[in-house]
Fold this protein.
Amino acid sequence: AKKLALALPDDGRISQFSTSKFASPGGLGWFPSNDSPMGGKSSIALQVGDIDPSGQTAMLIKAKVQAGFAFPWAGVVFFPAQQAMQAVDLSNANTLKFKVKGDGKKYQVGFTMQTSFIPTTHNFIAEAEWKEISLAFSSFKGLDASIITMLSFNAGPETGDYQFQIADVRLVRE
């Protein structure tokens, strides 16, 4: 079956967050995610965050990562297709950019591909001040941009309380 190459907005922004909703230009959109489907005990809450330096509303992600699953996590996911875990061709882009701030802890951003539930990830630190992070798709080991099912921002696997904000999430070609 031929996959559709997702038509991305001109600015590549997939986070169209406002005080009323966490919207996206296409796909199923943004959802809380944690290890509970795997029997884990981690919890997650998504709230409206601050305004980032570019004027974009942020999503505040409060995660409580608890033991109970081998790789506990809690965070947020973006489904680019119209249904969860359906593959989409994101090869119109080659770089993920986002702004982040938080509690100084380490987080993972990852892409999940068709036929796998294990994302290929990259670590980042959510520092106290807003910072833009730019990651080439090529820096995600084994990533095939033509079969992406999910983009995730997660706390874990270290247990504890986490708090970070993301804004201005973009998929761009550079």
About this structure: The chain has no helices and twelve strands.
